[in-house]
Known about the structure:
The chain is of the alpha+beta class and 393 residues long. The chain has seven helices and 28 strands. It has a six-stranded mixed sheet, with no helix packed on it. A six-stranded mixed sheet has the order 17-14-18-21-20-19, sandwiched between helices. Strand 9 and strand 10 form a beta hairpin. The radius of gyration is 31 Å and the shape is elongated. The two termini are 31 Å apart.
Amino acid sequence: MLEVSTALDIVFRFAEPLPPQAASLDAGALGQFVAEDVAADIDSPPFTKALMDGYAIRAGDAGPRIIVDELPAGKRPTIAVRVGEAIRIFTGAMMPDGADAVVMQERCERTGGTVIIADSGLTAGKNALPRGAEMAAGEIVVPSGSAVTPALLGLLAGIGRTSAKLYPRPRVGVLATGNELVGPTQLPTDGQIRNTNGPMLLAQAARLGGIPHDFGIGPDDGPALKQAIQRAFDSSDVLLLAGGVSVGDFDLVPGVLASLGVEIHFHKVRMKPGKPLLFGTLGRKLVFGLPGNPGSAFVGFELFVAPAIRAMLGHVDVGPRVRMRTLTHDLKANHDRPTYHPALVDEARVTALPWIGSFDLRSLARVNAFVVLPAGPVAFAAGTAVNTLILEP
């Protein structure tokens, strides 16, 4: 039985970014990652510009200045500033020849066509941004691996880019298995339960940036299950199978995967909940067999599927978000395996929640973290820093 860290290393050997594709740079690209270096096409700013409303002057002059023109943003200067002159200028406007500073209007006194400067500390370059100060033409301003954010989209628009190569979002198929499962709108009869893993895993995949696809419920029947899994594989980069991965008579998933040519890299991880977790590959496709209890499926996703999706998207920080947080209360436990206990976390503190087992979806609905408890008897006092798995926001 593998340790979590060892199993994760195996997953990362196969979870690689998908081949880059040219994509439009719009709001639909948020959360993706740029797969090429992008250079500026022009200097920015493309001219020396005023940084505030005021007067463009020669900083070394003294005495009143005659106002010879007015320059709003977007107008090209037609005259230069000479000794004893000033041009009324507005934020973003192109600096006229001869002027080397802008004095803010609050430090000026204007009388008719003359302005008196009250800023004795004005020096050349004051309140004026030189051409190319932000970036120079040909300079790499968006390196490969950059996350697409609203600010980055603005930057790319500023250098004339409306498309770029991006790592595509992986298609994440979800297939729940088990004859006992029925859809959420169906009232369960004797021996039946509603399929909660399907909607939960689809949402987890979407939150990470994957493209979720619901393949419904697969039966506990070898040939029919094989057909359902094959169909899901055909249109998935990552396939999540919930249930049927343990060692019971009706746990058919491992055998069906083997019959489809899946190479199973591990089956069982030393963790609680989620010990029977399975990971395999079919070519470049990844498949995770997650236990049927929702707590086990949830934790297995956060520990293994989420890092795999991040890696496929081109993330740099791909591993589980384990951080040290301070307990708000005393905590005792005694487990035979490292355990992930539901919790609530803020910037500095973590509170373990009441939890009655891996089937307890009601408690999971409240969590944004898990306290990571080592195997064996442990006793942590309030104020102790403990490892905490922090979920994606």
